[in-house]
Amino acid sequence: MRIVSLFLCLLLAAPSVFAQKVPVKGFLRALTRKTEAVSVSNLRYARGVKLPALSAAYSPAGRAAELRRLMREQQPVPPSRKPDLAPAAPQALRGPALAWNGAEAASALKETERHIRSSLVVVRGRATGEALGSGFVVRSSSGKLYAVASYHIVGRVGNMFSLELYRADGTPVRYDTVLVSAVGAFGLNAPDAAVLELPSSAAEYVRPLKVAKEMPQPGDELVVWGSPYTETAFARVDELKVKQAEGFKIVMESKDVSDDFNGFCGSPLLNAKGEVAGIYSGHAPADEFVFGVSARRTLDWLIGGYEGGMSPYYGYQFRGRTAVRLQGGESVGDVRLFDSSGRLLQKVYLPRYAGPFDPAHTERLFTDVRRGDVLEFDILVHRAVSRTERFEVP
């Protein structure tokens, strides 16, 4: 029976193609959970699926093996329907809007970390009880509480998961049936996140995190808190230095990227003020990069669509013109560049493309594009190609 459960867990964890692995340097086993209070006695942390390191070229080889079930089509939401995210909790620090000095910032982060256990979430599979990923709690301006997780962990809208939250003293509280409310899209260059609305009863003990208004800047250092599979404690990884932050994507450098730890995907990336600047999504060990998505932009997009009653969209632009428009759950796989005669010039597989990228500047993917050339976009729903869009370069 244990073998069957482990097999099911590995199947569920397989979508973690970004290899939820983290730098070892700065890794602290900081907050041990009180496991004796867990309602299911045989829960344990399982080591995630071992995946090969991404090559320098990030080849699309093996993409067919990653195809999954389709998600249903959804309609866009007007930008005006997006609500803002409210401050974390009544007791959250409200420092000055300007002129934060180093001591004030360090104090704010320290205060957030002092209560971090009540802000974090462990995402578990309902069938196996195994830990599949990490997450954290936010509150929208409407007052609703949400758990934030990785899209590649929880999948489509309507999927059911178990969530484990923790009181301040470490006592776990498990919700066995929580529905995925809204999802982003798959890949390092997409808003790889999902939100799950929490029961109102969670307000009695959770401490929602505050979401930063701005993207981090190159040179900033972030820390991540989450639940690695190999530990029975929440853990902290620091010394993540921002290299590039544009569009949805945050790229961080670390001196020691390890393949030994899984489970951090969905974790909050905290800035010096203790705010969530990003959502951890994976790494590229060959380049010692760690990736995240913008927390503010992603959560405004997801929660705005969910509370507005419709799903949002985002678009890819080429030299200021809309090349393709995506809806909730959609992302781009291969982008192919052809010349006017139909000859293939270049191809990029975006879900694993590690370089700087912003959907508003798709032209940066290619070194030489001329008038009359044609771009082809494979549109993925979850990870399966659902259609191909063509755009002629004006």
CATH architecture title of the largest domain = Beta Barrel
The best one-word shape is globular
Strand content: 25-35%
CATH topology of the largest domain: Thrombin, subunit H
Widest β-sheet, arrangement of strands: 6-5-2-3-4-8-7
Structural class: mainly beta
Q: Give the helix proportion (percent range).
A: 10-25%
Reported for the largest beta sheet, the result is: 7 strands, antiparallel
What is the domain tally?
2
Order of helices and strands: HEHEEEHEEEEEEEEEEHEEEEEE
Enumerate how many helices there are, as a single number: 4
Distance between the termini: 60 Å
CA gyration radius, whole angstroms: 20 Å
Total DSSP E strands: 20
The average pLDDT score comes to 76
Report the uncertain regions: 4-26, 34-102
CATH classification class of the largest domain:
Mainly Beta
